[in-house]
């Protein structure tokens, strides 16, 4: 459900100018019922000036009257045709100032481990610009020597579900193009959910490691059939001639 702008100031106005219940106001502005009660008691939003939702085209007077007459009535935000589609985020993601220094490391990680992602996808994931991504791809970034790749999910720059969705989109695009992927590329295109559901690859027991390519040759089989005389080990070449000499 869409929420009004300046929610706390709108709640202040509704508390001061209507008899609508705290629960109804809380549901409308997206706050907790106890916060609305705190506004009425003067403990919350002290000094906040009320914001008239009727004058600002967010509520109609008829909607307020209906809510005052029926405590079960839920306030509905007034439809504004000009605001249709505004809830969709356009352009790069906003990154807080405290995390902006982490973006080069996350870009480097995405470029290194997911080269199939386009610059546009990376830009939306971590909120950066295409020139910065290109500079890191080409290793011409001014600080490239000090940048270490770090997972953007671990840095809090994007969600794992968002990264997986971008990877899945790259999988579909690669499949549509009909390109042949190497084993390394195929592993990179697998999402976290898929990789966690895969069975473990069979491993060779430690006791026989190094013997997996061992095989008997025909010469070895023939040698096993021969009977070796123990005395032949003592009849070294030339030993008989030495015994005959005086």
UniProtKB/TrEMBL annotation:
In terms of Pfam families, this protein maps to: TrcR
Domain of life of the native organism: Bacteria
Q: Which InterPro entries match?
A: TrcR
Name of the protein: Cytoplasmic protein
């Amino acid at each position: 459900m869409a929420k009004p702008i300046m929610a706390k100031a709108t709640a202040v106005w509704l508390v001061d100018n209507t008899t609508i219940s705290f629960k109804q106001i809380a549901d409308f502005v997206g706050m907790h019922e106890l916060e609305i009660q705190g506004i009425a008691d003067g403990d919350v939003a002290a000094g906040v000036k009320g914001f008239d939702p009727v004058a600002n085209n967010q509520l109609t007077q008829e909607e307020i009257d209906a809510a005052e007459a029926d405590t079960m009535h839920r306030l509905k935000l007034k439809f504004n045709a000009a605001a249709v589609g505004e809830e969709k985020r356009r352009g790069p993601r906003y990154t807080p100032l405290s995390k902006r220094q982490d973006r080069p490391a996350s870009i480097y990680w995405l470029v290194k481990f997911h080269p199939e992602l386009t610059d546009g996808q990376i830009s939306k994931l971590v909120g950066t610009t295409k020139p910065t991504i290109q500079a890191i791809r080409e290793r011409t970034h001014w600080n490239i020597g000090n940048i270490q790749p770090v997972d953007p999910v671990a840095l809090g720059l994007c969600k794992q579900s968002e990264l997986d969705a971008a990877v899945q989109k790259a999988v579909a695009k690669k499949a549509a193009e009909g390109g042949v992927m190497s084993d390394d590329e195929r592993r990179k295109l697998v999402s976290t959910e898929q990789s966690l559901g895969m069975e473990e690859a069979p491993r060779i027991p430690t006791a026989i490691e190094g013997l997996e390519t061992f095989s008997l040759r025909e010469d070895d089989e023939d040698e096993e059939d021969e009977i070796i005389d123990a005395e032949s080990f003592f009849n070294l070449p030339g030993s008989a001639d030495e015994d005959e000499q005086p």
